Amino acid sequence: MALKQISSNKCFGGLQKVFEHDSVELNCKMKFAVYLPPKAETEKCPALYWLSGLTCTEQNFISKSGYHQAASEHGLVVIAPDTSPRGCNIKGEDESWDFGTGAGFYVDATEDPWKTNYRMYSYVTEELPQLINANFPVDPQRMSVFGHSMGGHGALICALKNPGKYKAYDATNLVKSYRGSQLDILIDQGKDDQFLLDGQLLPDDFIAACTEKKIPVVFRLQEGYDHSYYFIATFITDHIRHHAKYLNA
Amino acid sequence: VEEESGQELGLDRSTAKDFHFYHMDLHDSEDRLQLFPEENTRMRKEVVQAEMANESRGAGDGKAQRDLQEEVDELVHLYGLEDDHELGDEFVDENMPRTGVSEYPPYVMKRRDPAREQRDWRLSGETVEAEDLGFGGWGSAGQCQDLREAYRYTPGRASEEYECYVIPEEEDEEEAADVFCVTCKTPIRAFQKVFDEHKEHEVIPLNEALESAKDEIHKNMYKLEKQIIEMENFANHLEEVFITVEENFGKQEQNFESHYNEILETLAQKYEEKIQALGEKKKEKLEALYGQLVNCGENLDTCKELMETIEEMCHEEKVDFIKDAVAMADRLGKFLKAKTDVEISAQPEFEDQTLDFSDVEQLMGSINTIPAPSAPVINPQAPNSATGSSVRVCWSLYSDDTVESYQLSYRPVQDSSPGKDQAAFTVTVKETYCSVTNLVPNTQYEFWVTAHNRAGPSPSSEHAVYMTAPSPPIIKTKEIRSCEEAVLICWESGNLNPVDSYTVELTQAESPEASDVTESVVGIPTCESLVQLQPGRSYIIYVRALNTGGPSVRSEPAAVHTIGSYFRLNKDTCHPWLIISEDGLSVVRSERRIPARDLSSSDTRFTRCVAVMGNLIPVRGHHYWEVEVDEHLDYTVGVAFEDVTKQEDLGANCLSWCMRHTFASSRHKYEFLHNRTTPDIRITVPPKKIGILLDYENSKLSFFNVDLSQHLYTFSCQLHEFVHPCFSLENPGCLKVHNGISMPKHVTFY
């Protein structure tokens, strides 16, 4: 598959690039961001996949989170795909912010008219990794996934559904039946996150399920923080280190 | 002048034979210049006379004289004879060839007139004779020096430099000789050969004769120089011996003088005593005799009086006579009855005095014996020459006295006031040193020594204080704390009294080659030391104590491994309800408890929360340790400053940071407390083993689930002072500490 480089910027000794390609799973052109650390010049690096939240594109994370320094230091290739297929002209895809465009939820749709294009789960777990492995200096054996909001959930379900793939649909339910290898999950939650306050986020359930299933989780409720990229930027370093611990072991 | 010269000559003549120093006979050549032959002295006289004659000739011979004088001056100048112009004059005159006068030196010498030197010496000899009777006359260094000055010769003028110079004949002289008769050894005129006298003789040209004469003289000049050097050396040596003789004499003199004086004093004293005794005796006798004389006189008087009375009576009338006669008869009778003592009470003879000179004899006898030696000098203690139980005492004798043995005495130094002196031990040795054993460590002893020979003991030397080395210290192995870069050791002195300092010695235990290298830290004033080490090694540590006597033997060793940080729980901080295990790494809270009111307030012990602290080495850097916990146990683990308030819970103040686990209603609650605040953290899998990383450099304290390699939480803490690990048990149970282990890899990310 041909990759078209859209942009390239040097950052913390490495290169932040954006590519475009024709996605097979999503049947459209898709963009994704790739950060190549300085170490990638000489050797293959582990790959860390970031899944953004609702309404985001491949740009939000790379512009607002400030993750480059940590990625450069730990020598990780960070890949940030878009959050949904674009320009598919499906009726109703732009009607609500939390459904359709920019709201892929990292699942494969089972219904029409969505099921042709909205296959974010497969894209993120199959097509994209294959593309990355073929075109960039990454070690296919060392892969990790994290994300924010919808992307956080996406990360959980990807991991939970693919035991051993990552060093998780409804993460809570997945956890309850997880029989895979050891996971080590780090979750930060802003205490002032509106979604939390509105009850849309139910971390307690997840934690309870993990506790019961003895899945190691450290869940941190961060006082005063909200849902924004400011919150992400504050803790991104801890998370990258968390992943680096396993990817660079 | 004449008188002088006469005298000079007289001296010369009489002493020419006595002094062989300057006889040229040594070289056995007939051609030698005989400096003291009769002819020479005679000639000198002639010369002097000639001089005088010359002088008296006055102006008449002025021209000749002046010419001669010029030549003389030239010569003088040439041969540097300015000082000895007199000499030059003489010789110059002599150099003038005269018929019949053959034997005198044809060249000029710088050396002084030997005759003069001879005279000098003799003169000084005379003065010496005069002084011979006294002490210290002949033989003074000054005299000796003068002699040597007199004989000094400056070599350096090579013999070759002396040229044989012959002054050309003057016209008004007789015809010069122009050949040399070998047989007669005299220059003659050629025609003389023809005559009988020299007819049969061998004749060679005068020039040849000159040359050969010159050569001979050159050769002998060289030998002469050598002899001069030899003699000078010999003179040097003699001077030294001179001085030594003087010194030895001085010693002997002193010795004899003191003995002699002693004897004289004793004799004088005896004399005085005896004379006084005799005087007393005389007085006694005289007094007795006088007494007798007085009595006698009285008796006589009485007799005479009686006689007169009787005479008077005889002239009396018969009646009166008879009256008186009866009375007189009574009186006479009585008087005559009384015995008159006509024995002489005091004999005129004095008894023969037996003089007891035994002590004088003894004194005189002791002059001949060798004196008792002078006091030896005891050396101060050589550094590092002592052991814990022995010292090596050395002394010296700074005189030539004969010594047969030495007696060394010693006793411990008393620090209390002299009341009763402790008895001293004594050792007899033949050498000037002694190793004294069986002593007490770290103790001062005073030593003194006397030298002995047949005459008796010397006075005692000064008392020197020597000290035994201390006993070795004892390392407190249970209190060793270490980390990857250093170890903190402390020990007991091992000595009752203070020592000067301690030395810590380390060797690496692993490789045999490395174990030969010992690192030492010296001059440690207290009983503890923080020593820097290399990470990941094993060391053996010894300690020595040091005092003026030297170092003690090594203490028992202690092993240290610079892997991770090693510490033990501190008994002094332990809450009374906690018991620390023997190895100092586990703590147990039992079911029983002492009632709370019995707990007194303490600065070091926890009183409110049931806690204990560990003794972490006060070194910055990284420290990592692990705590084994029970899932159902309520515990708190973390770090705190040493002076954290023991009356509060851990984490309740800003002097402690810790992780607290509470298990209630089947739920695990985890808090990370500092200053009573904690973030909101949920942990799904309760850790069984908690890893704690203390990072001074980055001011962080991190907690981990060791089994899962899971990071739990990190504090950012300002650590301006050193902190210690702390542990508390909120209900009965047990905590076990694992330390001295390297940091696991996952921890390194933090």
Q: Give the amount of beta strand of chain B, in percent.
A: 15-25%
CATH architecture of the domain at 571-738 in chain B: Sandwich
| Residue windows where pLDDT falls under 50 for at least 5 positions of chain A | none
Task: Give the helices and strands of chain A as they follow along the chain.
Answer: EEEEHHEHEHHEHHEH
Q: Rg of chain A to the nearest angstrom?
A: 17 Å
Q: Could you tell me the mean pLDDT of chain B? A: 77
Class from helix and strand fractions of chain A = alpha/beta
**CATH-wise, what's the superfamily of the domain at 571-738 in chain B?**
SPRY domain
The fold-level CATH name of the domain at 571-738 in chain B is Jelly Rolls
Biggest sheet layout of chain A: 6 strands, mixed
Strand order of the largest sheet of chain B: 21-22-33-24-29-30-31
The computed structural class of chain B is alpha+beta
Would you tell me the overall average pLDDT of chain A?
A: 88
Walk me through this protein's architecture:
The complex is a heterodimer of chains A (249) and B (750). Chain A is of the alpha/beta class. Chain A has helices at residues 58-64, 68-74, 120-135, 150-161, 171-176, 194-197, 203-213, 229-247; strands at residues 4-11, 14-23, 28-36, 45-51, 77-81, 138-147, 185-190, 217-222. Chain A has a six-stranded mixed β-sheet, with helices on both faces. The longest helix of chain A has 19 residues, at 229-247. Chain A is globular, with a radius of gyration of 17 Å. The mean pLDDT of chain A is 88. Among the domains of chain B are: 209-301 and 349-367; 377-414 and 423-468, Immunoglobulin-like (Sandwich); 474-562, Immunoglobulin-like; 571-738, Jelly Rolls (Sandwich). In chain B, the strands form seven sheets. Chain B has a seven-stranded antiparallel β-sheet with strand order 21-22-33-24-29-30-31, with no helix packed on it. In chain B, a hairpin with a 2-residue loop joins strand 9 and strand 10 (456-457). In chain B, helix 6 packs antiparallel against helix 9 (206-314) and helix 9 (206-314) runs antiparallel to helix 10 (318-337). The termini of chain B are far apart. The interface between A and B is medium-sized, with 23 and 19 residues. Chain B: Its main location: cytoplasm.
